[in-house]
Amino acid sequence: MSYNWNWSIFFEPAPGGTGTYFDMLLRGLWLTIQTGVCAWIIALAFGSVIGVLRTLPSKTAYWIGFAYVEFFRNMPLLVQLFLWFFVLPELLPRSWGLWLKQIPDAPFYTAAIGIGLFMSARVAVQLAAGIASLPRGQKQAATALGLTTFQAYRYILLPIAFRIIMPPLTSEFLNTIKNTAVAITIGLIELTGQARSMQEFSFQVFEAFTAATVMYLLINIVVVVGMRFLERSLAIPGYITGK
Amino acid sequence: MIEISHVDKWYGPTFQALKDCTTSVAKGEVVVVCGPSGSGKSTLIKCVNALEPFQGGDIILDGIKVNDPRTDLPKLRARVGMVFQHFELFPHLKIIENLCLAQEKVLGRSHDEAVAKAEKLLDRVGLKEHARKYPAELSGGQQQRVAIARALAMDPIAMLFDEPTSALDPEMISEVLDVMVDLAREGMTMMVVTHEMGFARKVAHRVIFMDRGEIVEDALKEDFFGSPRSDRAQKFLSKILAH
To answer: Which residues in chain A touch residue B105, judged by CB atoms under 8 angstroms apart?
Structure first.
């Protein structure tokens, strides 16, 4: 194989007149971060609600949680994005569908929401497991003090359960960021998308994807360190992860 | 104060945990409930503040029917203190916060008011200097005394104890019983599930003996320890008093 290595390619101007190849990758990185963070916020919000539903005594609540989780976790992420992006506008009344197709940045919104909902099913399962792992007496003690179910979750069960599931949640945050790469298929030019354009324009495939890899690694290191810090600062002295 | 009449409870369609239980606790009375494990004594006491639902009979607490669907259960539960076998302090909250949470969220007391009340009660159970620690940093006996203080902080009209010393090391039992004896002598209405016959002799007015979901014996303390009428109570007493 004869490959012409050229690490200075990053500082050469990219076609399109919007700066160097490096600027191009940085723009992709920024979009990856934005998409990942938005998706994670959606995943946490929906995952928390559904996770709680799965632990309530009400049968209806349990079934809603069950159906939601099975719907979002049993379909490949790629298929889900296609459904939201290509199929949903066709299923809606014509005028709504048209409006949906004309939204600027549609790939961004679709990716953030689609990946967010996909990941929320996983967050829900973990949170439900975290709540279920608490001694039954905790809920009883909260109830016996006169707290309502909502208050018991808000002040007692959720604060403890979230601390317990912090390590797997870190993994899910990382997965959310990595999953944004799938959005390339609906036209979101995030980090992987920009690396691919760079490869197509410059033929420097190894440099492009090495840079993308390093950038993914850097974001994820920041997340890991940040979550570790959060975990430590929330640790309960003498309890489970506490020292 | 507590009227229990003809209470039946089933777990599932086949297992009957409580069979036609009828008894009462008058204001200022201390009633000890004992019996072999699985006899339904913990279940009975948890029915009193509706932590466990029951299918037949009625429980009336200070004139309010517990099993009436219109009863505001959180409000009713806030008026009855409960102490659990495994303490069930909230591990993520400092001792003082454990005592303040329900005062503020349920009774609507101001933070300062709640703290003042909490400090007074911690002083009373001899743990004032531990107010800023977390539950896991205290010994079992200390945690249980905090749990009693937490229940008292709600100014309860009655206290329920569910095997409060069963999870404690022997040398810690007396520090918890001392607090309970003081409470009984001050005229608190108490229903206590326990095997501590010394405690029963010292402060109980009546002793209830349960076996297989039934109240087998409901007698004045003197009568119970003098000459229990039922065989089963005699056997039980001879076993636990033999050592």
So the answer is: 147, 151, 155
